[in-house]
Write a structure and sequence with these properties.
- The protein has about 270 residues and is an alpha/beta fold.
- It has one domain: Protein of unknown function UPF0759 (TIM Barrel, Alpha-Beta Barrel), CATH 3.20.20.
- Helices cover about 30% and strands about 15% of the residues.
- The strands form two sheets. The chain has a nine-stranded parallel beta sheet.
- It is globular.
- The model has no long low-confidence stretch (mean pLDDT about 95).
Length: about 270
């Protein structure tokens, strides 16, 4: 997907099928088959998690494309068969199968791919770079954007940040969680997953926390360094360029995640 002249903000949730959302986020009388249609008109993006666990039918990608608004974007989890392996350099076949499974049927609605690693996966510079080299920059003429979500403290090193920057791959900012936080900007876009919603807040987060996140989103789009509270390893990149932002409200008290995402969209807008 081509980068627009002005940074774009995309905010959403992980998936759209979750029984406790029915009658709370989804209207009581909404048919389950229309949940994506409804959700995609409340958010500007959704992260698809099912692609992490196994291949989806090509017809599903085509259907998801047709059920969502023209300016909607999906982020996809890369398959675990590529990331949950001892030697990452051997992931080429899994990556190739993923991109041949029908994901391109999302057309312009195909957003970044999040390659998530297990908490036990440690940083090995040579092997990790071999993995990044396997990630295609384009497939059938369509630009592909990649993010990596690492969950072991060994990745909190300037060498890893430099490696991601060299390949133009975003490091997922895992916030409000027990996972290691690496908020360094390493790509032309930012990919954030915030995981701190709680049952006691109607919107998942307090108004103060939502305001803080909306300010941070604006800092990313303006090219400013992350604010206090977001931990960087190697500091800001040399250029002060605004970045597109993809932010998903994930985990935490999941019943509140749609409300938190909507509250953030109200504060900063959707696709801008």
């Amino acid at each position: 997907m081509a980068k627009s002249a002005q940074p774009t903000i995309r905010i959403g949730i992980g998936g759209w099928v979750f029984e406790p959302w029915r009658g709370v986020f989804y209207p009581e009388d909404l048919a389950q088959k229309r949940e994506l249609e409804y959700a995609s008109r409340q958010f500007t993006s959704i992260e698809i998690n099912g692609t992490y666990y196994g291949s989806q039918k090509a017809e599903s990608f085509a259907k998801w494309h047709d059920q969502t608004p023209e300016d909607f974007v999906f982020a996809l989890k890369g398959p675990r068969f590529a990331t949950n392996r001892r030697i990452l350099a051997e992931a080429g076949d899994s990556i190739e199968r993923f991109f041949g499974s029908g994901v391109l049927l999302l057309k312009d609605k195909l957003g970044p791919i999040n390659w998530q690693f297990m908490p036990t996966k440690k940083f090995d510079s040579g092997d990790f770079e071999a993995f990044l080299k396997l990630l295609p920059r384009s497939v059938e003429g369509r630009t592909i954007r990649h993010a990596v979500e690492v969950r072991h403290d060994s990745f909190k090193t300037p060498d890893f940040v430099a490696l991601a920057r060299r390949h133009g791959v975003a490091i997922v900012t895992a916030a409000d969680s027990h996972y290691p936080q690496i908020a360094d900007v390493t790509a032309p876009f930012v990919y954030a997953r915030i995981m701190g919603t709680v049952e006691t807040e109607e919107k998942g987060y307090s108004d103060a926390a939502l305001d803080r996140w909306s300010r941070q989103i604006r800092r990313w789009t303006s090219g400013d360094a992350p604010a206090d509270g977001l931990e960087t390893v190697a500091g800001r990149p040399a250029d002060k360029t605004g970045r597109d932002v993809f932010l998903y409200v994930i985990s935490g008290f999941k019943e509140r995640n749609p409300a938190a995402a909507i509250a953030l969209i109200d504060r900063v807008g959707g696709a801008s």
